[in-house]
User: What shape does this take?
Amino acid sequence: MAYPFPRFASAPQTPQYLKGIESPSSARCRGLDKPRPHATRWIIAFIGALAVFGTLWLSLFNHFEGRQDCGIASTDIYVPPITRHSTDAKHTLYCPNRATLLEAMSGGGRHGFDTPYYPVGCHFRWYSTSEICMILDRFDAVVFLGDETLQHVYSAFNMLLRENIALGALRQWDMKESERETCRCANQLTRPECLAYSVTDSLSVRLNDAGSRHNSPYYCDRTPHLFIPIDRSPAPEDLHTTFSSILTRELDSYKPIPVIHSLSLATSLSWPTATSSMDEWVTLADISQKNVPFLWVGPNAAGHLKPPSQILSQGNNALWHYTIEMAKEAESRALDALGMYNLTLQAGSWDGSFYGQKVVLVQAMMIINWLSRLEST
Assistant: This one.
């Protein structure tokens, strides 16, 4: 496992920004503090590449439901790697393996508040929906296991697979017309009355969406996926049963069943509860004798609107230490770990704890990148 967050500032209280993007030491590592004879030409090439990418992104994103209503532009959430020299091969700019990918995604940063997030050292990919389907075809199932923070990421996962950023996280067939209007776009994640309709498994969409006048099917639905909500350890026995049934559904299959696991704000950042939860679910996976790779996902950073009463227990100092220590605990259990602290540190949050579509779509794509690097057997 890559040890994440190697480029954090050492003092998390002020301002907790990483060294990976804007610090002088980072500039020296990349040689950006030295004048380059062809700097002007590089800038022109960069701008041209952005223009090309914008056209490409629009062609990929243009068919998504909500593309005009939700106000999410391509360059708000992702900027591809840019070659500095004509001799550079673009594929070499992407992370070469899973360990460097996790480190790059965990340790990146932003060039200003709410600007696009840049990984550090190498880049992750933004996959098209058809490419995501090919990645998912390599697995028997995909399980998201966590609290409300991870559920929002699973919601974005559904938006991508349903090609619907307006209502793709919701059970549209159960909603009234007025609710569908109220819950569009960002409201899918921010309003309690909308969250009540969140999709929690692919089977429900497959069984119910086709018969709805407001249908939004998956682009592909060959690989089942679901979200299992947990807020404690040990979790209720019925959740164990659900988890075990997924692992044993295809006894003769050799395909892995990846598990994305997270637990943070629901337990008030309890370290013992997190480690107990890791052991709990890994033990259940081992009993199944299936190939079950785990990804531990760290918590978001605290936003500016975090209530003062929560600053000590759930502020950035507590979140930073929880992130680092739980990544170490995951590593000691041979689990992969992905940090979300840097990604959310300079992003806008509506309540100080949770983030909107621009953030969760990137989080979902990061998880898809992790899935893409897993072995198929």
Notes: The chain is about 40% helix and 10% strand. The longest helix spans residues 39-61.
